Amino acid sequence: MSYQYPKAYSYPPFFTKQPNPQTWQSQLQLWKDFIIDWSKFHRAYRLNPTSDIDLFHNQTIDRRLSPQVIDEILKYMTDNGSGEFDSKEFVIYWKSPEEWAESLYKWIESTGQISRVLTFKELKNAPDFNDIDQFVLRKAIQVLSKRGKAQIMKVDNVEAGVKFF
Amino acid sequence: METVHKTAGGRPELAVGETSIAMHAGIALYIGDSKTPAFEDGRSYLTDRALYYINDRAALGLPLRSINAAEYSAGILTRSAKITVRIDASGKHKDILQMQWKWVCPICSHVNTADLAADNDNIDITAQRPCVVCGIRSPDTVKASRKPAEIGSTDGATCPRCTFINHPSMPECEICGEPLKSRNLAPKLPPDSFKAILNDQQLHDFSQVTSIRLSFRQGGDKPFYSKLQSALRNISNCNSSTNLATETSIDTGRSTPRLGIHALEQLSLQQRAQTSAILSGALGDLDSLMQHAGKVVEVAQNLAKQMAIAPEGIVPKETQERFLEQASAMSLAVPSSISRNVTSNAHGYYREIARDLAEFLSLPQNSLRNTGGIMGLADLYASYNRARSLDLVSPHDLLHAVEEFKNLDLPVSLTTVAGVKVIQSEADARRAQQNLLKILQECPGSSVIQLAIKSQYSTAVVSAHLQILEDAARVCLDRAPTVLQYYINEFDSFIISRETISA
């Protein structure tokens, strides 16, 4: 099944920053929804705003977003908790770190692995975690450790595994 | 005192040839000896024929002829200066104002109208103006009865003027238009039953008021009073001069003494009579010219209408266009009575210009509807001054005048669109915007020029409307590679459809 682009994607004003602030807010929301939708479908975690511009270019109607507007949209997503910059690349949270943490902890519980130490590699056995981005996985573990449900174990100052409580 | 009609700009409707002399705002009106004002915060207009009082509740007019005297009392401390106007409410003067006499010119058979003072039921037409068509004076002394003809014992009614025997059902003579008294006619309302209806539905009869007082809450009382006095003087001069003319023409008919003081007096009287005859003849020509100017404009408008609906091919297109242009230019030439010296201060002057502009824009040929509800100040300046012909308004005055629109509750307003000041008519602008939205619905992605062509508005007006619609989030724009294009705003509908799908 190929990806079904939203209706707005073939609406030319979608690719121009609207001067009306109210309209611009709606436009930002639509872009955010579209980016999350698109990356969820393709299971894409990272986006390079300088090279991955196909997403922002609709060739059928010949309209593209300008780099400044792309920056504004990604900044909006960061403020919204829908993504974050990891150096030059933008990490998309099509599932929020909290949601990832939630499902990870459920899996640990259901498989009776509490108070065990698991390596980062073993964590990828969790359902839906097989191709998870390292950055997102760290974020999810950070959420759990803040709640006191996980702790990163270090061996010779190198992170070796995670212990769950 | 009686109620009068107001124009679209909230000013009294003046009769043909009536010119305004002064105007002042912030006036309260007291009726009779009442201690409380009947109306607050109104404007007084003084013309060469009448004194008007207008506020948002009432519009009253008082013919200058019915004013017996005007007295001035200065303001003391908190008391504002007042002008007391004593009115002759006997109704005699109203008759004088309304009385019109028709006579048939013996040379060209044109039915002339003359309004003259007369006592009882008889009128002396010797001192009348010459015929408006051929300029020939009417035959010497004609005594006639002002009463409409009684129906005789014959089948028809004999016209008292031209002796034509009319059919009994005719209300007026078929030949000369003289009113005939018929038994079949319903009784007419007495002329002094004018009533003003106030907001509280209470009926006020102003016809029997014997005095009114104008209280000047915002000063300007003295200049207004002096203008009123001079206007009253002019009116009484007019009356006495006609009387004089009557007298002399009768006197010259008699045998005159040729010696002594009498002869000298007679000579000067004769000279005066001659001068007044020359003057009245000359002015009469001017008056008739003015009357005909109105008719000519009317004819031009009618012709223009017919030309506009004439089927193609009958008239060459070029001629037709040129003619329409000329006709509209002619009908534009509305004589405007405001000039700076009429009003007491600059502020009032701007307000009067604003009212005049509102009236000007309410004329069908200047309507903002044709231009899309919006007009730039430069266009307004040009077309308004073209209509005023010689008595031009400066750009500075016009700017101040349009800024007064909002204070006067007029159908036009001043707004700023994308930093440019424009005047707009709310209803017409909304209609134009609906029109533009409809065009965008049919062909999304239109540019300003395409919209201007389809809507027949100017590009400036289209841009202004698009700016307004953009601010209201009704349209959104698309910076296409070559040109800026406009679309109906559908972002919100996309969000709604997304939400319903996910729900």
From TrEMBL, chain A:
Coiled coil: none annotated. InterPro entries: ESCRT-II_cplx_Vps25-sub, ESCRT-II_cplx_Vps25-sub_N, WH-like_DNA-bd_sf, WH_DNA-bd_sf. The keyword Acetylation does not apply. GO terms for cellular component: ESCRT II complex. It holds the Pfam family ESCRT-II. The keyword Amino-acid biosynthesis does not apply. One of its GO terms (biological process) is protein transport to vacuole involved in ubiquitin-dependent protein catabolic process via the multivesicular body sorting pathway. GO terms for molecular function: protein homodimerization activity; structural molecule activity. Keywords: Protein transport, Transport. Belongs to the VPS25 family. This is ESCRT-II complex subunit VPS25. It comes from Tortispora caseinolytica NRRL Y-17796.
From TrEMBL, chain B:
It is found in: Cytoplasm; Endosome. Residues 4-244 form the GLUE N-terminal domain. Keywords: Cytoplasm, Endosome, Metal-binding, Protein transport, Transport, Zinc, Zinc-finger. SMART domains: ZnF_RBZ (SM00547). It comes from the Eukaryota. Transmembrane segments: none annotated. One of its GO terms (biological process) is protein transport to vacuole involved in ubiquitin-dependent protein catabolic process via the multivesicular body sorting pathway. The keyword Metal-binding applies. One of its GO terms (molecular function) is phosphatidylinositol-3-phosphate binding. GO terms for cellular component: ESCRT II complex; late endosome membrane. Its main location: cytoplasm. Belongs to the VPS36 family. Component of the endosomal sorting complex required for transport II (ESCRT-II). Component of the ESCRT-II complex (endosomal sorting complex required for transport II), which is required for multivesicular body (MVB) formation and sorting of endosomal cargo proteins into MVBs. This is Vacuolar protein-sorting-associated protein 36. It comes from Tortispora caseinolytica NRRL Y-17796. The lineage of its organism: Eukaryota, Fungi, Dikarya, Ascomycota, Saccharomycotina.
